[in-house]
Amino acid sequence: MSMCSDLALSLILGGTLLSTAALAEGPKVTVYKSPTCGCCTKWISHLEGNAFEVEAVDLNDLRALKSMSGIPPEQESCHTAQVDGYVIEGHVPANDIRRLLAERPGARGLAVPGMPMGSPGMEAPNPEHYQVLLIGRDGSATVFAEH
Length: 147
Description:
This protein has one domain (26-146): 3-Layer(aba) Sandwich (Glutaredoxin), CATH 3.40.30.10. The protein has four helices and seven strands. The chain has helices spanning 3-24, 38-48, 63-68, 94-103; strands at residues 28-33, 53-58, 80-83, 86-90, 107-112, 131-136, 141-146. Strand 6 and strand 7 form a beta hairpin. The longest helix has 22 residues, at 3-24.
């Protein structure tokens, strides 16, 4: 092979590898949580295990952030996250976040109110049925998914 052919092949293969790596990376999620919350750390592990890039930010008081994010009190949970313009409240499964990002509804984001046993980060032998809510821009909620 000539030097030009080697260079062209390197550029093509390099570009292919770069493209594949870029496709493999998941969306970046910023998670705001209490520094002492173990279930939040487990939820972060769930996201990372599902190819999300996660930045964890410890806060001693999340109330102001939840209020600024438009999370109604009845939809609150232990942590609040932000991903690609959406807010994610509580133990929302990674697949539901991916669906939200794919469908791009005109909404604030998703919430799993409280801390239901069996949701990601709250694994338990007897999981509860729970709903993932789509939070509208007006604070209303509709069922997005059921688990």
